[in-house]
Amino acid sequence: MKIYAGNLSYSVASEDLRKAFEEFGTVDSADVIMDRNTNRSKGFGFVEMSNDQEAQAAITGLNGKDLDGRPLNVSEARPKRTESRGSYRY
Q1: Is-annotated flag, keyword Repeat (predicted)?
Q2: Domain that holds residue 66
């Protein structure tokens, strides 16, 4: 399951995100999204967990929890519709 993690502090790195989610199970990947121009965090990221029960536990356990001074917004990632082509992407 792909999970969205928002409201991240700019100091949170992908490894920090991975460690927070590993408390709930096996993390396949964890990536903080970076701005291409400034190489600074955009304040959100995505985590992938192959076990859906562990992923749901992580969503429940981490949503609203403080990480580096900010409360996380955690939910199942939804496809994003691109305006130009009408296709979907993550």
Answers
A1: yes
A2: 2-77
Question: What confidence tens digit (pLDDT) does each residue in 27-37 have?
Answer: 999 999 999 99
Binned at pLDDT 50, 70 and 90, residue 80 comes out as confident
**Cα 43–chain centre separation:** 10
Give per-residue pLDDT as tens, 58-75: 999 999 999 999 999 999
Residue 85 falls inside a structural domain:
no
Which CATH number does the domain housing residue 41 bear?
A: 3.30.70.330
Residue 16 token pair: 């920090």
Count the domains in the chain: 1
Query: Is 17 a domain residue?
Result: yes
Judged by DSSP in three states, 46 sits in: strand
Tokens encoding 55: 């992923």
One-letter amino acid at 40 equals: R
